[in-house]
Inverse folding.
């Protein structure tokens, strides 16, 4: 192979490598841009302890889901999706089946985030809060309590 053809092949391979790198970096950048506003809103809700707006929660969920499609390896996105569903569960506290469904969805998102970042104390704490809320929300009858107590004794 002549040196001219080797140079052309090297430039072509370098161009393809740079194109893939730019694509991957732009994908991550787009996901980070998409998650900024919903994460800021959810952080402000948590900092002020005010009741979240259901419409803004829906918009935040949609933006975060889109961001997760762009960057499925980012553990922040499923964590905040879990926070969205946890807040939704708090809004519908009177509808027990819907509340349990939202809490289970929040738990699933936290599990996805923990799979990506297993050493995060914040994620484990969030998972504990969601699991506790699930335990409080599940209806239990006295027969179930008696069976559970008998198993412990």
């Amino acid at each position: 192979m002549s040196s001219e053809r080797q140079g052309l092949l090297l430039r072509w391979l370098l161009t393809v490598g740079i194109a893939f790198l730019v694509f991957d970096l732009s994908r991550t950048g787009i996901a980070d841009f998409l998650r900024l506003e919903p994460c800021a809103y959810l952080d402000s809700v948590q900092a002020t302890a005010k009741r979240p707006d259901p419409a803004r929660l829906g918009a935040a969920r949609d933006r975060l889901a889109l961001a997760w499609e762009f960057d499925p390896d980012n553990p922040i996105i499923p964590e905040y999706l879990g926070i969205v569903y946890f807040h939704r569960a708090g809004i519908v506290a009177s509808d027990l089946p819907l509340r349990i469904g939202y809490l289970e969805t929040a738990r699933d998102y936290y599990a996805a985030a923990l799979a990506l970042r297993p050493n995060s104390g914040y994620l484990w704490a969030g998972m504990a809060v969601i699991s506790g809320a699930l335990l409080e929300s599940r209806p239990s009858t006295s027969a179930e309590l008696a069976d559970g107590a008998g198993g412990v004794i």
Remarks:
- Residues 3-48 form the longest helix (46 residues).
- The CA atoms of residues 146 and 152 lie 10 Å apart.
- Confidence is low (pLDDT under 50) at residues 148-153.
- Helices lie at 3-48, 54-70, 76-91, 96-116, 121-137, 142-152.
